[in-house]
Amino acid sequence: MPTTLSDRNGLVNRQIPEMQLSDGSPSSLTAPPPPAPLHLTPEGRAQHRFAVQGNAIITGGTGTLALAGARALLEHGLTGLALLDRDAESAADAVEGLARDFPAARILVKQVDVTRADEVARAVGEVSGVLGSVDMLVCYAGVVGCVHALDMKPEEWRRTMDINATGAFICAQAVAREMVGQGRGGSIVFISSISAHRVNYPQPQSAYNVSKAALLHLKNCLAAEWARYGIRVNSISPGYMDTILNEGAGLESARKIWAERNPMGRMGVPAELTGPLVLLCSRAGSFVNGADLVVDGGAVVF
Ligand SMILES: NC(=O)c1ccc[n+]([C@@H]2O[C@H](COP(=O)([O-])OP(=O)(O)OC[C@H]3O[C@@H](n4cnc5c(N)ncnc54)[C@H](O)[C@@H]3O)[C@@H](O)[C@H]2O)c1
Ligand SMILES: OC[C@@H](O)C(O)[C@H](O)CO
């Protein structure tokens, strides 16, 4: 069915033709599903341009996207991994799975609140002591709340900013101090969001959106300050991913809208964020600094 559009210039009832693909089929066909995961052999891992060398700290490390990121870094050669999360227990099965699938890697899990600079500094020192170095930091720790700005309590605003933005700064600072001492650089990746680029629809979440926008400029500032130490600082801005964060009462209709408004017609799955992460953490990304990689199926083009 052609769509009818009334526009502001009075050109009413313009018909938007249905786009056709070269084989004559309509473009509104269901988008293809996500691709199957790629599994590298151990030999392939070590020699690949996308090989990941050294040890990583991942914050919010027992969350859904973080565990997918951890698995991808291990698949590409990561030798040591520390998952820092304020809720370190909830993903015991997933962590056991990683340990089983990557028996040569050293995997630590630590209960850490990223808003506590003392806890973070202690954990970074302990991880470096056990693994021998810290070469990568990926900051996934984050919370989201849907609250109308008129109803927002200052405490809710501060908590969101504290975890999502200040927590990332605290972790980046502690890890960068360690990296500067080690003298061989490193890679830091913040997990921002398309919410840093666009106001979400339909849910109101100003504190989250502003906290994620803050991460983007923090990334710019640190990329500028720390490049001289060989530390690259980048970010990834995911679109709507199918995780627990986006499930629950009241979100069914929103999920439908998010998928409908996406050129690819769906939400992403966690593994689809991991390619950009591997790029940023590997030799293949050696000249990528201060960049934000939007990974959203094209959501922000509208
Ligand atoms: N799921 C999405 O669609 C989506 C889209 C864009 C961005 N993101 C971002 O990606 C990140 C991970 O999202 P997810 O979907 O995996 O959510 P998730 O809830 O599974 O993971 C978040 C993790 O952060 C941890 N955390 C929260 N506060 C913490 C604190 N103070 N200290 C330490 N850990 C803390 C939680 O315990 C949890 O394990 C978040 O920053 C989120 O904003 C998610
Ligand atoms: O913008 C997408 C994400 O940051 C997030 O999943 C969403 O905003 C949560 O409501």
UniProtKB/TrEMBL annotation:
Signal sequence, renumbered to the chain: none
GO BP term, example: carbohydrate metabolic process
EC main group: oxidoreductase
EC numbers, comma separated: 1.1.1.250
Statement: the UniProt record of this protein carries the keyword Metal-binding: no
Domain of life: Eukaryota
Family: Belongs to the short-chain dehydrogenases/reductases (SDR) family.
PANTHER family assigned to the protein according to its UniProt record, in alphabetical order: BENZIL REDUCTASE (PTHR43008), CHAIN DEHYDROGENASE, PUTATIVE (AFU_ORTHOLOGUE AFUA_4G08710)-RELATED (PTHR43008:SF4)
Protein name: D-arabinitol 2-dehydrogenase [ribulose-forming]
